[in-house]
From TrEMBL:
This is UDP-N-acetylmuramoylalanine--D-glutamate ligase. It comes from the Bacteria. Belongs to the MurCDEF family. Keywords: ATP-binding, Cell cycle, Cell division, Cell shape, Cell wall biogenesis/degradation, Cytoplasm, Ligase, Nucleotide-binding, Peptidoglycan synthesis. InterPro entries: Mur-like_cat_sf, Mur_ligase_C, Mur_ligase_C_dom_sf, Mur_ligase_cen, MurD. Its EC number is 6.3.2.9. The lineage of its organism: Bacteria, Pseudomonadati, Bacteroidota, Cytophagia, Cytophagales. Cell wall formation. Catalyzes the addition of glutamate to the nucleotide precursor UDP-N-acetylmuramoyl-L-alanine (UMA). It comes from Rhodocytophaga aerolata. Residues 306-419 form the Mur ligase C-terminal domain. ATP binds at G108, S109, N110, G111, K112, T113, T114.
Amino acid sequence: MKLVILGGGESGVGAALLAKAKGMDVFLSDKSQLAEKYKQTLVTNNILFEEGQHSEAQILDADEVVKSPGIPDKAPLIQALKQKGTSIISEIEFAARYTKARLIGITGSNGKTTTTLLTYHLLKSAGLKVGLAGNIGESFAKQVIADAFDYYVLEISSFQLDNSYSFHPHIAMLLNITPDHLDRYEYKFQNYIDSKFRIAQSQTKADYLIYYNENPPIQEELAKRNLPVALLPISLEKEMARGAYAAGNNLVIQANSKLVLAQEELPIQGKHNAINSMAAILTCQLLNIPEDAIKAGLKTFKNAPHRLEKAGELRGITFINDSKATNVDSVFYALESMKRPVVLIAGGIDKGNDYTQIEEMVMQKVKALVCLGKDNSKLIAFFKDKVPMIQETEYIRDAVSLGLELADPGDVVLLSPACASFDLFKNYEDRGNQFKQAVEELVTKNS
């Protein structure tokens, strides 16, 4: 079988290694230059590859193509493959064919990474043989070569779901659906909703779908679809006979048994993290993990960087790095969890954002807005009469200095951009790291 892999990042190289292990005729092609570590891996394993170009004739000769999630369907090469009738799949779809493990798939516009890491941590600390993959960590396909785990916890983006067909999670989580990446979905929200619901397309009555009950797009879509799967709703507003809900300061989680937890016992705070935590704990219950093991795991969990991460403190002002907030909904959750006045640093590449989602929250909590981006016109136009003070810059150090200048003791300077980072940074991690470094320099200088 001739397998072509488009894209030579973590997922592409992992897929190439799995294909080689299964005896396929593999060729990897990347229009950009490959990172040295990936190039070395391909050379060591005698896998043919090219970089800086796509050899169309060779690619069109493929029996099947594994496509990087970063390549849009409208790319001419993808259109040519479709016209030819070539099967185009994601690394997630490809890897899932070769594992005996049970799969736990997690998607949503926000909260995927936190929920994936928490679920993985709780399962692992309870003693299960569990792998972590998808949009996080080491390639799923690479891990499947040894297939040493009984479970995989997978963070899955809409782009990965777009080219998945028979991918079958035993437990799927749909945390929320809010407008995001609309530039990839013809600016049609329904297309994006359809993409997210692909996580449940192969599920059966023996499987589970955990979802947030108060998310209108999920509710409307569930009413339209007759899914055979067992539904487990999570609510912040009403009691659920089966699923999970908030009751005052407690969370009640009940799948196979009933567990009551005080919200203050959670390692991550805020309403959005209550939803994320309930989803992770429901999964533990479905896999018969004892209550004491769940509670012990919660006590030792540490979230990943760039998600409401404290970056430093100076003159009674707290700096918080929420660089992972690349859409408006994420910023809503960040602001909602703030108990003190906020100087908000936002901006970058707008993905079709609708700022009305956070308008009221900004007016309540934000005393000043620092726009960090090459083109801040949309942000400024929307918030000019809604925030007392607006400044703009293209430099992270200036943004941090302005934050200090505009804040008073007891305030928070919050980097929560609502936008992609590629105008000024390599990615959101680079943006977050530069923010933390700028804060550290400012603290050292003023200490």
